[in-house]
Design brief:
This protein is an all-alpha fold. The chain has a domain of 64 residues. 36% of the residues lie in helices and 0% in strands.
């Protein structure tokens, strides 16, 4: 080890340059939340939990800017059951009511009396 070091050309900050548009910050996150994001990345086969957190935050910000009408439509599509497909009704054609076979009494033939 040298007795004296020259730091006159040194620069403060991170050694790695940040990608354009990114900012390095320090935040405090609950352990459970961080564990959930790490597990989600692990289940997906790898990646960065920080990217997943960033994507979740970007999605939240985009939804906050979403107009109320769009939010209501999205929520209704997600929450309401899908409509059942109805049979096509042909105009002019009479529908014949079919009796429920389970409720009908068995008919005895005249020869068995």
């Amino acid at each position: 080890m040298k007795a004296e070091y020259d730091f006159s050309a040194g620069r403060r900050g991170a050694v790695d340059p940040l990608p354009r548009g990114k900012t390095r910050i320090t935040i405090r996150i609950d352990r459970e939340v961080l564990d959930w994001f790490r597990a989600a990345v692990h289940a997906a086969g790898g990646g960065s939990y920080q990217t997943l957190i960033n994507d979740a935050l970007c999605d939240h910000v985009a939804r906050q800017a979403e107009p109320l009408e769009d939010v209501l439509r999205r929520v209704l599509r997600e929450e309401l059951p899908k409509p059942r497909v109805m049979k096509k009704v042909v105009p002019g054609k009479k529908r014949v009511a079919r009796p429920n076979k389970e409720l009908q009494r068995p008919v005895r033939s005249a020869s068995r009396r």
